[in-house]
Write a structure and sequence with these properties.
The protein starts with a strand and ends with a helix. By secondary structure, it is α/β, with parallel strands linked by helices. Helix content is 46%, strand content 14%.
Length: 392
């Protein structure tokens, strides 16, 4: 079997490519967008067409949805398989989502529920996974010096989203700023449910969308995506920035908190900021050596489990994460990982698990075993291929 892997440099791509290869699949790669982020849809279509015309491909694959690839596959009647690993994804509003040769896999059930009615026979739900074997190679070689260097009471690895927050650059009325601030304060008190999209008024949506000259526009859409973009790309990113700053500062008032990020940390005076870490070689050492690994899922991921959850567990780290509706589908809270639904509960659980090492270590081991046995890329891609054999 031959496939084409259309790449753009997602951190998930190497793991998926390796598993396809291990399955005995011949994988060709098209790397246009790895080297040219401004590549046009026409360039994309020409490259993919060339591969299709010169090879007998079972399907074309990509991480996340590329309308130009979908249209090209539709033209040549070759299945297009993609696995969406992000949210929000504006490209899912493209008319290309309706194409008959699509086989689209979405990792968030809320995302799936929203988009699957557009093409119900060709859109599927598939949660994310992790590469336990790759993490093991790093962790088994860790030295005492590594544990000392990367160890922490509480650690967080990730962006603060301040540099990605378009909302802060907008000129808005006092009324709209006040409305959004109030809405965010209310949302910050609720975990497991994102009510911002349905609560926004038409006037607020219009003002925010018109305030950004670079607001995402496309003529190739099956529905108006303005509400979706305002809620997720503007307010959702701002909410993530506020939540991460507030949470880390609050914890740092009572505990030793270490942050690994390339974002500006000037507003986190009591947090031990250590800059960014290499995803493949340093991040697993942080997860393994830290007593508590904190995860804060950005609100545009409404019910699903972010890649960070799977990776922390896959590295044998103890995970304390905000509650997400899909967590009980895969893990037993208090046995495989821990969750919180308020900052008060977060503080209480940090205090508890820092003083109950044996219980903390047991939970970390349980979480690792659960992921290693049931949630690797091998397992997930086997599930995907099973669906493809039934649907292609």
């Amino acid at each position: 079997m031959e496939i084409l892997f259309y790449r753009y440099n997602s951190i998930c791509e190497p793991d998926i490519l390796q598993v396809f290869t291990n399955f005995g699949i011949t994988v060709h790669t098209e790397e246009l967008e790895m080297h040219n982020k401004q590549a046009s849809p026409r360039e994309c279509a020409e490259r993919v067409s060339g591969w299709i015309l010169n090879h007998s491909l079972a399907f074309v694959f990509s991480v996340n949805f590329f309308p130009a690839v979908s249209y090209t596959c539709e033209k040549w009647k070759v299945p297009y398989v993609c696995w969406s690993v992000d949210s929000p994804v504006p490209e899912l509003f493209s008319n290309a989502l309706k194409n008959t040769y699509n086989r689209i896999f979405l990792f968030d059930k809320a995302q799936y529920d929203s988009f699957s009615p557009v093409n119900p026979e060709r859109i599927f739900y598939l949660p994310l996974a992790t590469n336990v074997k790759r993490w093991e190679k790093v962790i088994l070689d860790m030295t005492e010096e590594d544990y000392a260097a990367y160890g922490a009471d509480v650690s967080f690895v990730g962006s603060l989203y301040t540099e990605k927050c378009k909302y802060d650059t907008l000129t808005l009325s006092e009324h709209t700023r006040g409305f959004v601030d109030g809405l965010m304060e209310a949302q910050l008190k609720v975990f497991g449910c994102n009510f911002i999209p349905e609560t926004l008024t038409d006037a607020v949506i219009r003002e925010i969308s018109e305030a950004d000259a670079a607001f995402y526009q496309s003529d190739d859409v099956y529905a108006d995506m303005t509400r979706y973009l305002v809620a997720h790309q503007y307010i959702g990113m701002k909410l993530a920035a506020v939540e991460r700053e507030r949470t880390l500062n609050r914890l740092a008032n009572h505990f030793s908190v270490t942050l690994y990020t390339r974002s500006d940390t000037s507003r986190l005076p009591s947090v031990h900021s250590k800059g960014g870490v290499s995803t493949l070689t340093e991040m697993p050492k942080v997860f393994q050596a830290s007593k508590i690994n904190l995860n804060m899922t950005m609100r545009p991921i409404e019910t699903g489990l972010s890649l960070r959850i799977w990776d922390i567990l896959g590295c044998g780290g103890f995970l304390l994460t905000n509650y997400q509706a899909e967590i009980p589908d895969y893990f037993e809270i208090g046995r495989d990982l821990e969750t919180y639904e308020s900052l008060e509960e977060l503080e209480e659980k940090v205090h508890y698990y820092l003083s109950h090492e044996e219980e903390r270590v047991e939970i970390a081991i349980n979480g690792y075993e659960k992921v290693a046995n049931y949630h690797t890329y091998e397992t997930r891609l086997a599930q995907m291929i099973k669906v493809l054999t039934e649907k292609i």
